[in-house]
């Protein structure tokens, strides 16, 4: 069995990565970070700390102003999946067509894609909704479609940008459970952006705490609680202790941000 | 969403709401109908009370009679006008969507050419027509060109707006998946532009009819045309007011019909996903 808490081999190094936008805003400064294979890594920080920018850099949607991203293993486009803050589905297309889309863009026919799409829909508990269109689904279900779509290409790396921020707590808990199950099962690496201490502790084995203005890494902690994590973990003293530690780290990061600094 | 089973007993408030909705549904077509009947009755009375001669203002039943006795002539002309209308609408769709797609392929192309589309739009067609009359010989081609100029702009501008208003994240998603230009157009931009295009089409449908009629009016005296507009001019010269009214009614009905058909098409295409086509829930 894979060591879920330990560190796999390095997948990606961010070395002194900085990003300054054309309007002069310095979104990231001197970020050093190693993502290891099998990680469930959360980027935790207040808004404006550049965590989404970091994710977009990893996805290749934007390029760093300074520093570099070093990939240890060649990851083609097929090997990263992206889940946005909103479900970002095609509103005119059925659930099936939405999940099929990444394969379709790679030239895979509907028939050939069908087994993979059906399997993923089953994994996110949406069997039977193949023909529904997004507006007929609840917020949580839409997000499930979005996750299925990101995983349909069997990516090695899944990037998630505050995917559950807009959901109610009960739905969020359920989706957290299901995401962890998928992660333990399919052995992809996750980089998960969030501003929720509780969510990051519940999900991740590593939390990178970020501070704002300019966006930078202010600390890192390991959550070495065993997987699988379930409802029992959510109410355990162990979980509470991790949350306390993460909160303190986050507070420290936010206080350090209030000192006058550049922008 | 359809509610399959209504609860056996509604509380007074809900029952009142259901009653209200039913009443409004009936009223929405009954009231305009009643107003129309009243207006026709009033028209008839005014003719009688003031003893207005039929070559100034014919009574409604005379118009209806003319519609029947002159049917062959009028419907023949209607067909001519319809042909111009639909052909120019078709060309407006092809031209408008084609140009819009071209525009969105490159910001530079859009920046260069969009202003000229506006120039074409804001110049009154009646003022351009004498030029067209000189350069184009074929009568049908003349009318088509006029009608097209009037009709194509709303399609062009709406479709351009639609093609450009794609969700940013969806654009990123396509980029991440290595979509080609054609794939982006086919699977993202064109479907996203659909509601905008259909909005433009509804306007263009009416405009192409107006364009066809106006063009024929301006071209009218040159002879060979035989659409409804020339019937109106002709009837005007001969003080044949009943036929004039009959032709006018046919044009109005055609306009209404075009609008209704295009609204239906729009509803059918969008009803599953777009807000504009959704029934109010709750």
UniProtKB/TrEMBL annotation, chain B:
Molecular function per GO: ATP binding
Record field: transmembrane: 26-43, 84-104, 116-136, 142-166, 193-215, 244-270
Entry GO CC: plasma membrane
InterPro entries: MetI-like (IPR000515), MetI-like_sf (IPR035906)
Keyword annotations from UniProtKB, A to Z: ATP-binding, Cell membrane, Membrane, Nucleotide-binding, Transmembrane, Transmembrane helix, Transport
Superkingdom, natural source: Bacteria
Membrane topology: Multi-pass membrane protein
One BP term from GO: transmembrane transport
Localization: Cell membrane
Family: Belongs to the binding-protein-dependent transport system permease family.
PANTHER family: ABC TRANSPORTER PERMEASE PROTEIN (PTHR30151:SF41), ALKANE SULFONATE ABC TRANSPORTER-RELATED, MEMBRANE SUBUNIT (PTHR30151)
Protein name: ATP-binding protein of ABC transporter
Lineage: Bacteria, Pseudomonadati, Pseudomonadota, Alphaproteobacteria, Hyphomicrobiales
């Amino acid at each position: 069995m894979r060591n879920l808490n330990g560190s796999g081999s390095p997948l990606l190094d961010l070395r002194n990565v900085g990003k300054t936008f054309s309007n002069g805003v310095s979104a990231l400064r001197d970020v050093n970070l190693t993502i290891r294979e099998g990680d469930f890594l959360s980027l935790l920080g207040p808004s404006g700390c550049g965590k989404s920018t970091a994710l977009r850099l990893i996805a290749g949607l934007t390029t760093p102003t300074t520093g570099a991203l070093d990939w240890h293993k060649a990851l083609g486009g097929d090997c990263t999946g992206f889940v946005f803050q909103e479900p970002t589905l095609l509103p005119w297309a059925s659930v099936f067509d939405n999940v099929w889309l990444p394969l379709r863009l790679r030239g895979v026919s509907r028939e050939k894609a069908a087994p993979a799409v059906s399997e993923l829909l089953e994994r996110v508990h949406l069997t039977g909704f193949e023909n529904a269109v997004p507006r007929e689904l609840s917020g949580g279900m839409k997000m499930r479609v979005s996750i299925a779509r990101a995983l349909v290409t069997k990516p090695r790396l899944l990037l998630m940008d505050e995917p559950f921020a807009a959901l109610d707590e009960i739905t969020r808990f359920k989706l957290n459970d299901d995401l962890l199950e998928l992660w333990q099962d399919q052995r992809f690496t996750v980089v998960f952006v969030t501003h929720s201490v509780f969510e990051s502790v519940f999900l991740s084995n590593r939390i990178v705490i970020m501070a704002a203005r300019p966006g930078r890494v202010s600390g890192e902690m390991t959550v070495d609680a065993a997987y699988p994590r379930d409802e029992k973990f959510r109410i355990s003293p162990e979980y509470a202790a991790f949350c306390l530690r993460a909160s303190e780290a986050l507070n420290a990061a936010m206080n350090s941000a209030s000192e006058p600094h550049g922008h | 969403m359809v509610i399959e089973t209504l609860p056996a007993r509604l509380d007074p408030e809900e029952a009142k709401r259901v009653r209200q909705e039913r009443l409004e549904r009936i009223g929405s077509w009954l009231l305009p109908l009643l107003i129309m009947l009243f207006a026709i009755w009033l028209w008839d009375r005014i003719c009688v009370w003031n003893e207005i001669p039929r070559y100034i203002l014919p009574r409604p039943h005379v118009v209806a009679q003319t519609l029947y006795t002159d049917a062959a002539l009028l419907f023949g002309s209607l067909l001519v006008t319809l042909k111009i209308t639909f052909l120019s609408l078709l060309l407006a769709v092809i031209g408008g969507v084609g140009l819009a797609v071209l525009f969105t392929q490159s910001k530079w192309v859009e920046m260069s050419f969009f202003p000229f589309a506006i120039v074409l739009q804001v110049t009154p067609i009646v003022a351009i027509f004498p030029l067209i009359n000189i350069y184009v010989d074929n009568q049908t081609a003349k009318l088509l060109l006029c009608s097209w100029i009037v009709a194509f702009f709303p399609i062009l501008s709406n479709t351009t707006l639609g093609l450009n208003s794609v969700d940013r994240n969806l654009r990123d998603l396509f980029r991440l998946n290595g979509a080609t230009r054609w794939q982006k157009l086919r699977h993202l931009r064109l479907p996203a532009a659909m509601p905008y295009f259909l909005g433009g089409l509804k306007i263009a449908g009416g405009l192409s009819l107006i364009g066809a009629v106006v063009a024929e009016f301006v071209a009218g005296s040159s002879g060979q045309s035989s659409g409804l507009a020339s019937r109106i001019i002709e009837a005007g010269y001969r003080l044949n007011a009943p036929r004039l009214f009959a032709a006018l009614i046919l044009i109005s009905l055609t306009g209404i019909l075009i609008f209704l058909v295009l609204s239906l098409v729009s509803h059918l295409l969008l009803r599953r996903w777009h807000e504009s086509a959704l029934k109010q829930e709750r």
